[in-house]
Design the sequence.
């Protein structure tokens, strides 16, 4: 009968949390930990937001797991850690975005030689991207203080997750005033010119392709944003830099002046929007043909 059933059930996560020395790994072995986190189980959130736990979660998404682990579980904990850090629970976002020591621990992932582990890079990019959306001012201020940030992102441009992170900075910052501030910061860092430099025969194909895709998306995002905010008098500085004669001339030089490679030519002439670099709004070639023998 109905009254025979106990509807006041306690989750296994709660039972584990009642243990004196429960570990983060024990909790992450529970299938319902993410569900309990999203349901804002306060006891669980208080545990996860402890300094030691937060550091462990960040380490899981930024450090390669041991090679001697069974392959099917090797990235189980890093994946769960990423889901917990990006589950849009304010207490976790506030804890991570408001603690510079944790942000530094996360940022250190970039300070290694390429190639990055692509799966960890996706966890890193997703986590930083979520913070850009949720703790915008704190994270932007933190990144701007890092003199090497843009250089490190470009260093790892061969990993597509880092291209995605760069595009989040261009597209996901609100309000409009702060977004414009970020665009000016990226422009001061000469991000456009440095991306064009990566479309060069001396660079590997992945870096060329991702740099080209990033530039294509910056064109698209800049024009979309401009059409939506027609009342905004200030132009997008990245789009202005992209469509400048100097930028287009440099692209053409990279494509044609040195040892030509198929990958460089393809990256420089993508159909996905890069044509906006080679042609002005009137359809005329921006680059002076007298200075670009490749067009003769």
Sequence:
């Amino acid at each position: 009968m109905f009254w025979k059933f106990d509807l006041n059930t306690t989750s296994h996560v709660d039972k584990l949390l009642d243990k004196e020395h429960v570990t983060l790994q024990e909790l992450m072995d529970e299938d319902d930990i993410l569900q309990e986190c999203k349901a804002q189980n306060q006891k669980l959130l208080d545990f996860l937001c402890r300094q030691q736990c937060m550091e462990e979660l960040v380490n899981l998404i930024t450090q390669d797991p041991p090679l001697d682990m069974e392959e099917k579980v090797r990235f189980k904990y890093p994946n769960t850690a990423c889901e917990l850090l990006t589950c849009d629970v304010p207490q976790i976002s506030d804890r991570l975005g408001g603690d510079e020591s944790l942000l530094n621990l996360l940022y250190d992932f970039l300070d290694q030689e390429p190639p990055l582990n692509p799966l960890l890079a996706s966890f890193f990019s997703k986590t930083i991207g979520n913070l850009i959306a949720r703790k915008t001012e704190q994270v932007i201020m933190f990144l701007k203080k890092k003199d090497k940030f843009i250089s490190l992102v470009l260093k790892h441009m061969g990993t597509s997750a880092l291209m995605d992170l760069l595009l989040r900075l261009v597209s996901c910052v609100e309000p409009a005033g702060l977004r414009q501030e970020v665009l000016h910061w990226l422009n001061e860092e000469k991000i456009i010119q440095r991306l064009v430099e990566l479309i060069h025969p001396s660079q590997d194909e992945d870096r060329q392709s991702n740099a080209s895709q990033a530039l294509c998306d910056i064109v698209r995002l800049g024009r979309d944003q401009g059409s939506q905010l027609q009342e905004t008098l200030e132009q997008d500085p990245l789009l202005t830099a992209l469509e400048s004669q100097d930028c287009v001339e440099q692209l053409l030089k990279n494509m044609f002046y040195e040892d030509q490679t198929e990958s460089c030519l393809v990256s420089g002439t993508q159909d996905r929007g890069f044509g906006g670099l080679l042609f002005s709004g009137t359809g005329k070639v921006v680059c002076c043909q007298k200075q670009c023998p490749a067009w003769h």
